[in-house]
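**Backbone shape codes:**
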Amino acid sequence: MIASVKKLAWAAGLSVTAIGAQANEYSYPAPIPLAEGAQASISSITPKNETLRIAYMPPATEFNYYIAIGAGIEHVANQAGVEVFMLAPQSGADINGQMGMIQDVLTQDVDAIIFGTHDEFAAAPLLKKAVDQGIAVVMINSDIPNFPTPIHGVVGYSQRNGTHALADWAVDTYGDKPVKVGIIEGQPGYHSTERVGGFLDGIEGNENFEVVVSIDGKWNVEGGNTAGMDILQSNPDLDLVFAANDYMIIGASFAAKALGRSDIVLLGNDGDTSGLEEIAAGNVTATVNTSPFFMGKAAMSATLDALSGSFAGGWIEIPTTIADEDGAVALLQKPEELFPQPSKEY
């Protein structure tokens, strides 16, 4: 099925580049079954092209996190010698733009779609069409056990468990005195619900932690900066801010710096290179490291196995760790596992 020489188109509109084919030797954690009724049939996948053609469709290009996942996808694509292209709107808030792109891809004879979305209900009808067309459909950066329509696989970390562990770390580190907490949520949807919910679960029952404000930061640095400025100005006694991704907490750190709040604890979620560097610099306190490059490799490998019929389906869990300053520096000292590369040697 796989020809000796394939092509890779790594960004929308770019011409493809020939690369030599290699065997895919990457393995991934054993899948966990999805909820009943959520698993699309692997046997119904019907590859169309001799040269397998795969669309990578993250929610936006503004997030380096999804570019890091894409780099992991590209790594395995290079090994396997398949054609893959990325298509996404610039803004993570452009749900209509992403839906239009998925509609377009459904007319392009792709064999598989690896996707992430900020609105699973908007995407579901289009991805049902993909599954009905015999396209392999794999979701990344999620742990949703019952996507609104059956799909073939999900690859991601346990979002609720990851932020619960971050809350446990915060309680252990700061819980011996009263802590007023501000929350910066993502846009409403599964990701925000799980990440914020995990953090709230982790601090529940600790009488020293009090959440006094929670607002939407729109998943990006600008939104996090606006939200951070709003909550810090309206609640000058805040001690800690948790944001549902690293971009928003980086934005909040700019607000804290502008307001002279060097004392505030700033917690994020992702393990994006920029987030790790902000932690190493002392501008952010800690994050949940979710290994996006590793996630991309797992997603592409599972997709190739789905196309060959050797993937049973289910959720592939990517392990997480809590990265404080020491942990961030240790991760930055392994630049081969990060994308983009750190701005300097650590």
User: Anything to note?
Assistant: The radius of gyration is 20 Å. Residues 226 and 288 are 22 Å apart (CA to CA). Residues 1-24 have pLDDT under 50 and may be disordered. The chain has two domains: 5-156+291-312, 159-289+325-332.
